[in-house]
Give the backbone structure.
Amino acid sequence: MNIAIMYGGKSGEHEVSLASASSIARHIPKDKNAITLIGIAKDGAWYLQDEANVDAVRADPTATLSIDTDERRRVSVVPGGGAAGAFRVEGKPLPIDVVFPVLHGTFGEDGTIQGLFEMADVPYVGAGVMASSVAMDKEKTKVLWQAAGLPVVPFIAVKAHAWRDETERRIIVLNAEKDFSYPMFVKPVCAGSSVGAAKAANRDELERRVGEAFLWDNKTLIEPFIPALEVECSVTGNEAPIAYTPGQIVPSHEFYDYDAKYTDPNGASLKIPADIDENANRRVRTLAVQAYRALDLSGCSRVDFFVDKRNQTLYLNEINTIPGFTSISMFPKMCEASGLPYPELIMRLISLAKARYDERKGLQTSRA
C-alpha cells in the first residue's frame, strides 16, 4: 500500500506530532508498503516532503521528521477525488491508499481534518468526524460518559465570555470553592498533551491558571485535584474494540505535565502492567471499552484513568483518539505488552481504516 503519513499541524502539539510521525514511519513494514510524507506547517499549509526523510528516520532512531515548506510542493485537496486523486501537487495527482493522520490536538484530533478526509473520499486511520470532535472536548466527553453511567472526575466547565465578566467570575470561583477544596486542577477543554494544564493551590492561583488556560481554548475545566495513580489503557477496533494491558504513569514532576511527557527524559517512568490488582485490571479494561463505545469511536484510542490512592475509587479522566506514538509513548508500549508489536499495530490500524471506509462506502447517499 501507499500510506500517507500526515504530521505537524496548526496545534500546540506540533512538535509532539513530528516525534510520533517519525516513530510510525520507522516502524511501517517496508515489504509491499510505500510511504508518502505530508507535513503541515504551523500556519496550516500542506507540503509534500522528500522521500529521503523516511530513510533518514529509519537509519537513525534519534532522528525526527521536519517540514520543508517548499512552495513548489504545496499539497491541495480535491473534494471527491478519492484515493487516486484527492491530493495533488502542482495539479498532478498524488495517489495514496490510506492516510495515517498523526496530528495531535486542534485541527487534527478534533474532527476538522476527519471531515476533510470524508469530503475528499479517502480512507483514514482513527475515529470519524463526530467521535473525534466529541472526544476532543473534555466536557462533552464527560457528559456522555455520565449519561452512560460511567464514573468521571467531577468538574465545572467555564466559558471565556463568562470568565471575562467580573460578577460571573466571582460566582464561578465561589462555586468551585463550594464544590471542591484546594488544590484544584485547571485544563483547557480542547487541548491535549497537558498543554495549559496546571494545579492551583489557592484562589489567586486558580484565577491565574484559568486565565492562562484560556490562551489555549475558549472553554476550561476546573476539577478537584485527586491524589491518584495515573493508569492508561490502549483500545483498538471498530465494532469489536479490544482493550490491552493497562499501564501506569509514575511522574517525577508534581503531575504528568507537558514537560514530563515530552521534554524531560526523566519526567516520568512507565510501568506495564500497572501496579493494580487483578480485579482493578479487569475493571480498567472493561471501562475502557465502555468509554470507547459510548463515544462511538473507531480505529484506536488511549483511555486515561485515575485510581484514588485514598479509597481505590476508579475514575475515567479523558480519552485520546490520536495518542502519542513516540518511542516512549504508552499507547504502543501497552499494545506490545499484550503481544501486538509496533509494526503489526500500525498495519492493524490501517486495516481498520480500510474496513471502516469500505463499510461507509456501501451506504446509500441518493434516492435516485
User: Anything to note?
Assistant: The chain has 13 helices and 17 strands. The chain has a mean pLDDT of 92. Residues 9 and 108 are 7 Å apart (CA to CA).
